[in-house]
């Protein structure tokens, strides 16, 4: 010990020699800590008829979240609740149930907000300053205001509680209250801490032709991020939505707690699941990838909506909540029934003239379909005629060589035959081989000095540029002027963003965000002028399926893959988040143009009848008996389709089981339609007994199989109680591969 002190004094004596000297005039410490006003502790309950999201403001003004789930009577009891041992640095480890964590203070986990200030600082600490509640019909809106007292940054957290639907829609508004501009490096829409022992995440992946494939994944103690960076066609590989089953390792349609979420954004998104020692922090919003967003002094950035629901009765109820909300708010014209149709694409591709289309219209009318849609190939002239996918996009004038009679001639014929008329456009795109590309190279998304990559021989127009927004709106508007009988537009979008760059943007970081905002601006203009037209959102099939665009569209083209076997998986996956009313489902020819599979026409019809039914083939290629079956299926579909559009969906068996079964039940539970499909042969195993769902156990239902002369069920034509059908012996004999059946149930 003595030796140690001797060494220490020697070292101190040496200090000046090795460069250290005590400051002569000690610098005055100007650091003053800004005082945070204390507030009254309180509980803020955002609640619907069955779901509650509880916030807790402590005396220091910190906003926490202790509950999202079943509605608890008297939530004020949470006032004394202590969630974590915060004095041991729970924020630091992400376990303090922070309702809106930021980079700064003691929090070091995935933040909802990350701001970089003009002085280079990254610290934000938000405190509660007040909240307000407003009620309008079914919706209660709660806005919670937070502020950083040092930087004057303000955040408003907005929660819309849809009472009957049990859905809570939330977003954030970030205001730069300071005097200098700031940069938003993360700017989530919504953040939710959840506490359970196990978290089973169900999310969606895929590609062209396999959209909305389902993955179930038990979350470990690490960060799971689901995101896209491809800008447009943003849901090609992942969807901005999920289901989270709590305290279980197995997905279940009927039992257990499930939280579901979907982000209403058609561009780059990021869903982060950050599991800490005692909770899971879910953070959802725009992906800040290459999109640090500069916010000028006084400016506010409004993030997109995140849609949440909770179910205590498994995933099925979570989906039904989302569907119910989608019908009244999430989907444009969500409660309307969209017409059955014949689309020209797989039946004619680019090879048609007026005679081809007229004969397709006649056949569609004869089969009882309600609309004809003229797909790609009707525009472009001369060297840029759209006779294949290599030219013409951008030149939206009628192809006078192919259709000298004009669009109005075709549309009028459809109307005379009692059909509506629809037409295809892809207004955000341009082929290098087009007059538009020659006239406006500055409108193309490109990076100076670099090759502009093509995707399906086309370039992307820079929709962040207001001049391009005007052009795109003009394409829609001019197309509508081609005839006053256009009832439906199929708006396509067939590529993603590569080597992004905008000639127009001064700040390239704004490109991804402003592209999507520009897209919505155009759609708002379209809807102001054309509130009645039915618009389908297509993007190489289902590469743009989200609640952002659905606010303006009536439906989506679910997938280019029309193979009924693949469709069972795609439609099943889509149904977990989105209602059947939006799913365009078409019967196409065999061998299937995508997969080569040969399935029976009945199987193809039954699968397509589980969504918005359509056909996409040359009707002339059908035999007489096939035509008869088509007539029959279309006719019966019209009798029960109100259940598909506005009924409640119950999924009975998932396609991964080799069988697929589902049903839709009317709101009053008096009518239902049940679908069963055998996807793969299981030796002598017949279709195992189905437990129907959602019926009234006490009602007696008459069961009728549709579109067959001989039923595959022994009980066909008879009457059974809901109790028997839900718990007893509904076992249609569907044992051969690709056998299928549709049953219609009506209470006596
Ligand atoms: C995309 C769509 C198809 C069809 C073609 C036309 O692939 O998804 O349905 O409209 O474009 O080129």
Give the averaged pLDDT, no decimals: 94
CATH arch. level architecture of the largest domain: Distorted Sandwich
Describe the sheet with the most strands. 10 strands, antiparallel
Global outline: globular
Q: Please identify the top-level CATH class of the largest domain.
A: Mainly Beta
CATH homologous superfamily (4th level) name of the largest domain? alpha-galactosidase from lactobacil brevis
Distance between the termini: 98 Å
Oligomeric status of the shown chains? single chain
Estimated radius of gyration:
29 Å
Measured by DSSP, the beta-strand proportion falls in 25-35%
- The low-pLDDT segments are 4-19
- The total count of strands amounts to 35
CATH topology of the largest domain: Beta-galactosidase, Chain A, domain 5
List the bound ligands. alpha-D-galactopyranose
Task: Please describe the structure with a list of short key phrases separated by commas or semicolons.
single chain; 748 residues; alpha+beta; Beta-galactosidase, Chain A, domain 5; TIM Barrel; Immunoglobulin-like; ten-stranded antiparallel sheet; eight-stranded parallel barrel; 35 strands; binds alpha-D-galactopyranose
